[in-house]
Amino acid sequence: MTASAVPDDAAPGDVAIAPTAPPHLAAPDAEPTAPAARALPRVIAVANQKGGVGKTTTTVNLGACLAELGFRTLVVDLDPQGNASTGLGIENRGLATSMYHVIMHEVPLEDCIEPSSVKGLFVAPASLDLAGAEIELVPAFSRENRLRRAIAAVLDDYDFVLIDCPPSLGLLTVNGLNAAGEVLVPIQCEYYALEGLGQLLRNVDLVKRNLNPTLELSTILCVMYDARTKLSDQVVQEVREHFGDKVLRTVVPRSVRLSEAPSFGQPIITFDPTSRGAVAYREVAKEVSRGATRRTG
Q1: pTM of the prediction?
Q2: Which of 224, 261, 205, 235 has its CA nearest to residue 86?
Q3: Cα–Cα distance between 124 and 90 in angstroms, integer?
Q4: Residue 219, H or E segment
Q5: Taking a C-beta distance cutoff of 8 angstroms, is the pair 223, 57 a contact?
Q6: Of 102, 165, 227, 271, which has the maximum CB count within 10 A?
Q7: Span 14-30, pLDDT tens digits
Q8: Where are the beta strands (DSSP E) in 89-215?
Q9: Structure confidence at residue 294 (pLDDT)
Q10: What mean pLDDT is predicted for residues 104-115?
Q11: How far apart are CA 244 and CA 237, in angstroms?
């Protein structure tokens, strides 16, 4: 990475994008070598401890686009705010069974799964009760394995399981990382794009060494790209230089329609199927699936 400005209050390992662009920048759609297709089913944790980086937007819309491609997909909402649930039209207030009951009371995951308006896309909704789960899990037996066991029981029913992790590095996120085989990290194309990422990567490595040896950081997605600014180009270039072919070729643009869709309880492909955001997430889904065989049943 090139030398970068880091704020005074940044955590150790944080990296910030330099404010001045280099004289020659690679185009945001430059094509690194694509990795080979991965075997299904795949469990992917969508994680970034920074808030407002497009994590839930990515989980919801990637899930919808994978389902549109013919993959049977489950979105597991592990964030107490429940935005992935409401963004897919699931009212998370007053739920009889939610991810709280799955994590804390070991209720079977299949008992809380709800269908969405998109064919082939299902949701395991969160509830506000999850906010207390971080504390309740502290003395719990086998606390890091609750979600892993729950997903294992239904994994044969799905091609993709996407876990929307909370914007923190607590026990819920550890459960998400322990249950997953891969981590997808959305990075916004803004000034301190990589701030805090060092700590996330250390936690991923910690989970890999102590709990889940198969876990890997497989995918980086650049979001909130603004073609009007040189800074966005530079962020994409810096991220690609640092992470190589883990970075998807597709970048997701800033889009008012992407921001509006959750308030209608819809993913972007049903809310505005021809919008730039819909086009981008369809391309993201194609890259993530990378030629995997669709489920025929």
Answers
A1: 0.85
A2: 261
A3: 9
A4: strand 216-223
A5: yes
A6: 165
A7: 444 344 333 333 344 44
A8: 114-115, 121-124, 160-164, 182-188
A9: 61
A10: 94
A11: 10
A 10 A CB-CB count for 225 gives 22
Q: Say how far apart CA 123 and CA 142 lie, in whole Å.
A: 25
Query: How many C-beta atoms lie closer than 10 Å to residue 144's C-beta?
Result: 18
Number of Cβ within a 10 Å radius of residue 93: 8
Q: Which residues, 6 or more positions from 52, have their beta carbon under 8 angstroms from its beta carbon?
A: 188
Which amino acid belongs to residue 31?
E
Neighbouring CB atoms inside 10 A of 166's CB total: 24
- Rounded distance between C-alpha atoms, residue 111 and residue 103, angstroms: 13
Query: In whole angstroms, what is the distance from residue 81 CA to residue 125 CA?
Result: 10
State the sign of the Cα–Cα–Cα–Cα dihedral 73, 103, 167, 52: positive
> Whose structure tokens read 């959750």?
262
Six token digits for residue 31: 């094509």
- The answer to whether the beta carbons of residues 114 and 122 sit under 8 Å apart is yes
Q: Is the separation of the CB atoms in 269 and 64 below 8 Å?
A: yes
Task: Note the maximum CA span of the chain.
Answer: 57
In 3D space, the residue among 147, 87, 75, 146 whose CA is nearest the CA of residue 113 turns out to be 75
- List the one residue out of 119, 77, 84, 120 whose CA is nearest residue 101: 77
**Is residue 261 within 8 Å of residue 272, measured between CB atoms?**
yes
